[in-house]
Structures are given as structure tokens and as C-alpha cells.
Amino acid sequence: MKCNLCPHNCSADRINSFGVCQAPADFKIAHIQLHKWEEPCISGAIGSGAIFFSHCNLKCVYCQNYQISQLGQGKIVSENDFIDLCLKLKKQGAHNLNFVTPTPYSHLLIKLLPEIKAKTKLPIVWNSNAYEKVETLKQLNGLVDIYLPDFKYYNNELAIRYSKAPNYLKTALNAITEMVNQIGEVKLGSNGLIKKGVIIRHLILPDQIEDSKRILKSIKENFGDKVWVSLMSQYYPMYLADQYPELNKKISSVEYNEIKKYYEDLKFAGGYFQELESADKNYTPKFDANSLL
């Protein structure tokens, strides 16, 4: 294959040469678990069936999952074994199947999702960084029930500096527009769990409250009441953040209160706002490829 699944358009064959994400051609999985720390309508009482893929097409210098996204921790898994992992999570009681950073493996998931959906009867959550191509997302139409994109930056200079993601704003807006067009408005079941819809996440970065405001305003202007918004205050310095003084700290209570008021004033149709105490590494999964067994 020549991989052009994401906006980097590397054309790597992913066997003899690897692109920006460094992902192989086959599935590489770092961890699976019943994840109880996602949004309440996703985690529910039992947990979301989270499958954490290795590698990522962004290079976020502050990534809290850097062991798997940047260092590539994980195991190669066959297509049949991947389906078995989905069935394992189903048997454990997962409310949904939550694919975390799935974009580098879109080619495999597009092929396997019809079988996975038929066998598990679970909603599929596409948990991504929004740095995606509309052409790739179109092939997921009818296969994904819940899109959970992380809208990271309004300022493209920040996107390049912190994540090596050129033209991030336009790319993310186009991707999320496609997601919304596919899914429509958020729908909950009688049990309060999400059945379909788009929930846009945004991680607040220290010293970047104005960028966060621009993102929230853009979401409201572009998508109105069609989406929910999950504003995350869980940032704490990880990975290479100590090389960037402005990132080498948590967000302050002043920043938190300012962005919370701005969020509330926009009156989104639904969503969540994390407490400041969520900026704790105890909420980050302990990645263990042995969890695949």
C-alpha cells in the first residue's frame, strides 16, 4: 500500500518505509480495557470498550499517551485477533467499542467494521484528533455511530509548534463537518448512554485561553446545536512539555474559571466540563500490551 489516509499524505508503504505516524501496515494495539473515565454517556456504569492503537499522525509534545502514540509501545495483532478483542470487550459488558487514535488503521477498520458491528451489536466510537481527510471519513459512513474528535487548535502556528500539524484548523473543521453530516444530532438511549452523535473534545492548554475561546466560538458558529462539547481541564506536563516553558505547568484556577464562564455563556446543546482536579496522571490508563491476552 501507499498510505495517504491522513492529511500528511506520506505515501509510505508501511512495510519497508514508515510515514509520519510510524504505524505498520497491520494493526498494532497497545492496550484494551473497560474505560470508566470517558464522558459519562460513553462510559456508563460498566465502561467503554476502549482499544488503544499504537502510533499517531500528530506529534504532540505534551501527549499524555506518549508511550504508545510517540514511542510505539504495543503488539502487532492479526485481523482475526482484532475481531476477537472486540468480542472480548463485548463479553465483559462494554457499552460500546471505543477506537482510540484509529486514523492510521482506517484502511483495516473500513474493511472489518461491517463484521465487527454484526457480531458485537455495539455502537462504534471513533475517538480521534480530527486531523483527518474527508475522503477517508466518507468511507466510514454507516460504520461509525459516535464521533469523538479532539479539536486542538485554532491558531495554526500552535498546531505546527506543538503537534507538527500544518493547516490544522481548516483540516479539523472539514473533518468534523463530515462527521456531523454523517451522524446528525446527538441521540441518547433511555439508559442515558449515547447511541449516535458527535461530541467535540477540547483540551485546554496553559497560556492559551484565547485560542480555546476561538475554538469554542467556531464550534458554536459552525455546528450550533448539532454537537455536544466536552471541555477538558486534565492537562498536566508530560513527555517533552518541559522543553516548552509555557507548557510546563497546569492550567491555573483563573484560566479555568474564565474559560468555564465562556463555555457556559455559549449555551451548547449538551456536553461536559471537567473539574480542575482531573489534571492528575491517575486518570491516564496504565498501558500494558499484556491486557490484550
If you had to describe this structure to a student in words, what would you say it looks like?
By secondary structure, this protein is an alpha/beta fold. The model has no long low-confidence stretch (mean pLDDT 95). Strands 1, 2, 3, 4, 5, 6, 7, 8, 9 and 10 form a ten-stranded mixed beta sheet that branches. The protein has a single domain (27-292), classed as TIM Barrel, CATH 3.20.20. The longest helix has 16 residues, at 168-183. The chain contains nine helices and ten strands. It has helices at residues 40-43, 66-69, 79-91, 106-120, 134-138, 156-163, 168-183, 209-223, 253-266, and strands spanning 27-35, 48-53, 75-77, 97-100, 124-128, 146-149, 187-188, 194-203, 228-232, 271-273.
Q: Secondary-structure map with pairings?
A:
Layout: E1 27-35, H1 40-43, E2 48-53, H2 66-69, E3 75-77, H3 79-91, E4 97-100, H4 106-120, E5 124-128, H5 134-138, E6 146-149, H6 156-163, H7 168-183, E7 187-188, E8 194-203, H8 209-223, E9 228-232, H9 253-266, E10 271-273
Helix pairs in contact: 3-4, 8-9
Give me a quick take on this structure.
The chain has helices spanning 40-43, 66-69, 79-91, 106-120, 134-138, 156-163, 168-183, 209-223, 253-266; strands at residues 27-35, 48-53, 75-77, 97-100, 124-128, 146-149, 187-188, 194-203, 228-232, 271-273. Helix 8 runs parallel beside helix 9.
The global form is: globular
Number of domains: 1
The CATH fourth-level homologous superfamily? Aldolase class I
So what's the CATH class?
A: Alpha Beta
Output the structural class. alpha/beta
- Tally of strands: 10
The main β sheet shows up as:
10 strands, mixed
Which band does the percent of strand residues land in?
A: 15-25%
Helical segment tally? 9
List unreliable stretches of 5+ residues. Answer: none
